[in-house]
UniProtKB/TrEMBL annotation:
The lineage of its organism: Eukaryota, Fungi, Dikarya, Ascomycota, Pezizomycotina. It comes from the Eukaryota. This is Uncharacterized protein.
């Protein structure tokens, strides 16, 4: 039997800067194997964010900048960052109501990471512009003014990142997000002609008609107009399917509070008022606005590419003259 004094305590694995080579117990593996290990860790880290949202959190960026780098293993940080930054999609969220406010989360984060590794081969890089669907319906002119002001600025920022970090055009995007039309549909339903002129007055309350819609969203590829148009069509189809599901679920839910005669009125209202309102009035406005964004984004990007090509040709010509 071994004496108590001879029992060896299990060694604690230290991944901090105190470890001799800064790699902790991973020093036993070649870098290729360490990269595989990091690859398993990346999904765990990204999945821990709220709602699996890839968007950059300004508070997290500030906290990252304030964290004392020397308290962690430099080598471990560098190797993991290298795998992490090239495995995820970086996206910055911009609210239209703050369109005059400069936000540079993408630049700050990439500049910080760039101090440790050579940033390249990013998976995707984009800006998400969020707006409420109510604005599409009630504030279309103001919304277009905001977009005309904001879009070129965001695209120029993406162009600078495209040049600085060699992110190819096909990996750059603008994502337009139109928050769910629940309140718009609910306000239409509870104030419809059928409700006002029938015995369904007990349903004259917005809360009866609220429904959880998925957020309506579509990516705009800066270098591929046809892909952007297809994404818009898919967005409209998805929204239409949600409206159909809304009609079925609301019919099922509200029939419990209706007589058979009232159920017929309810079905008529959902089919003859709610659905046409969405198909004939809401969708055209949404498509018109989104198509404008596609055209503006594509035209600005193409103009910048053409300007770059012209400058590049002049640079080549000057280099040839210097050789002569």
């Amino acid at each position: 039997m071994r004496e108590a004094s001879q029992v060896t305590e299990k060694k604690f694995v230290d991944f901090s800067f105190k470890s001799d080579d800064g790699l902790g117990s991973l020093y036993r593996f070649p870098k290729e194997i360490r990269n595989i290990i990091y690859g398993f860790v990346v999904p765990l880290v990204t999945a821990s964010t709220h709602d699996d949202n890839p968007a950059i959190d300004d508070d997290l960026v500030r906290a990252l900048m304030a964290f004392p780098l020397l308290k962690t293993s430099k080598q471990l940080c560098v190797e993991f960052l290298e795998v992490f930054i090239r495995s995820i999609e970086l996206e910055e969220v911009t609210q239209l109501v703050y369109s005059c406010q400069a936000r540079h989360s993408l630049e700050v984060l990439l500049a910080y990471v760039g101090r440790r590794i050579h940033v390249m081969l990013l998976k995707q890089l984009g800006c998400k512009i969020e707006t409420d669907y109510f604005d599409v319906w009630f504030c279309t002119v103001e919304l277009e003014v905001d977009l005309v002001f904001l879009l070129p600025r965001q695209i120029k920022r993406l162009w600078m990142l495209h040049e600085k970090y060699s992110v190819t055009s096909d990996k750059l995007y603008i994502e337009m997000t139109y928050f769910e039309p629940a309140e718009l549909i609910a306000s239409l339903a509870c104030t419809s002609r059928t409700i006002r002129s029938s015995t369904l007055i007990h349903l004259f309350c917005t809360t009866y008609w609220l429904h959880k819609f998925d957020i309506i969203t579509a990516k705009i590829s800066l270098s591929n107009r046809s892909a952007s148009t297809q994404a818009m069509n898919d967005m409209v189809s998805s929204a239409g399917a949600q409206i159909d599901e809304y009609r079925v679920s609301k019919m099922r839910d509200l029939q419990r509070n209706c007589t058979p005669a009232e159920s017929i009125l309810l079905e008529s209202m959902l089919n003859d008022e709610v659905a046409p309102f969405w198909d004939q009035r809401c969708v055209p406005r949404l498509v018109r606005l989104h198509a404008t964004v596609i055209d503006t984004a594509t035209e600005v990007w193409v103009a910048m590419e053409e300007q770059y090509n012209v400058h590049h040709l002049f640079d080549l010509a000057e280099s040839w003259l210097d050789l002569d």
